Amino acid sequence: MDRKIAELMAAMIEYDKGDAKRIQHFVKVHDLAAAIGTLEDMEADELFVLEAAAILHDIGIHVSEAKYGSCSGKYQELEGPGEAEKLLHQLGGFTAEQIERIKYLIAHHHTYAEIDGLDYQILVEADFLVNLYEDNVPASAVKSVQEKIFKTGTGLAMLKNMFAID
To answer: For the packed helices 96-108 and 73-91, what is the interaxial angle rounded to 10 degrees?
Structure first.
């Protein structure tokens, strides 16, 4: 793992201190996104941004709960980019271009229309792989997600193997 990514993960674990469930969630999303991105032959710089976005993708949850009494996807997308930017600047070592793409991915990770890049597609797939399991989604819903969301060969294979579907 890249050192800067490891530092970001440690910083995000501190940010979510005391919330083991959410920490476990983003660690799993990160690991699946990194694996999918690697197996889909992403360029190193794009993979770096994907990994950072996967770690930070739900950073807006606590602010959303405090501000709106809800952690719905639309609020996470609204509040997450600003929180991510603060943490990335505090940590340092990220370019302005990287920060902008990370913020964009966070601001859209619950929006499934017009996915505009491999990093975005993989982040959505990794989040779904984890959420489908954590939410104990029935097989019929998994099949629907397979048809509507999954596009990468690696993500599709992982989904089929995890949930034993064709």
So the answer is: 160
